[in-house]
Amino acid sequence: MTEVSAQEVKALREATGAGMMDCKRALAEAKGDVVRATEILREKGLASAAKRAGRAANMGVIESYVHFNRTVGVLLELNCETDFVANTDEFRDLARDVALHIASLSPRYVSREEVPDDVIEGERKIAEVQARDLGKPEHVLPTIIEGKLKAFFGEVVLVDQPFVKDDKKTIQQVLDEVGAKVGERIAVRRFARFRVGDENA
């Protein structure tokens, strides 16, 4: 299978609005050909490339949240495609909810693409050692490792975390739901979380 870079996946995702793993699979299937990968996503109904291509989510708001005891604070940039949507109550409410979520669950990265390769490889090795220590058969190790990696991403990656107000949905699903309602792509660009006395928060 063709190796694809995180940058290629991110670019295809931004262009099509499709999910990160769908973009990765499509690029691998297309042997790195972005045009063909876009076609594959459209054929599978996973992208609305005609609508999304060339539309950057570079409008939006900066939202802040400070916990009631003033020991945790968050600054968040939430993006959409137009000022009109950025000024709606629905978008502002979403920004507040995501900032609250970040304060509560302390993600380390916005997306999987931001997780350094060495961190992923380290988690992969830990998962393999744990599975082997439990005496799991060789043929099931890849499945177990991928499951543990998925759980790891669900702990540290914002868009993969279960939403603090409704844990049946991930943050990405919440963003996509609001995006579908307003007819625009919505994305978290960046965030900073501060905790009193903790330089790494």
The overall strand count is 5
Question: Poorly predicted ranges (pLDDT <50, ≥5 residues)?
Answer: 49-54
Order of helices and strands: HHHHEEHHHHEEHE
Residues in helix, %: 40-55%
Structural class: alpha+beta
* Beta-strand percentage range: 15-25%
Query: Quick check: average pLDDT?
Result: 86
Strand order of the largest sheet: 1-2-5
Helical segment count: 9
Give the termini separation. Answer: 38 Å
Largest sheet: 3 strands, antiparallel
Report on this model:
The longest helix has 17 residues, at 89-105. Helix 1 crosses helix 2, helix 2 packs across helix 3 and helix 7 (117-133) crosses helix 8 (141-156). The strands form 2 sheets. The chain has a 3-stranded antiparallel beta sheet with strand order 1-2-5. A two-stranded antiparallel sheet has the order 3-4. The protein is globular. Helix content is 50%, strand content 16%. It has 201 residues and is an alpha+beta fold. It has helices spanning 6-16, 20-29, 34-43, 49-52, 83-86, 89-105, 117-133, 141-156, 171-182; strands at residues 59-66, 72-80, 162-163, 166-170, 187-195. The model is unreliable at 49-54 (pLDDT under 50).
Q: What key attributes describe this structure?
A:
single chain, 201 residues, alpha+beta, three-stranded antiparallel sheet, 9 helices, 5 strands, 16% strand
Summarize the structure.
By secondary structure, the chain is α+β, with helices and mostly antiparallel strands.
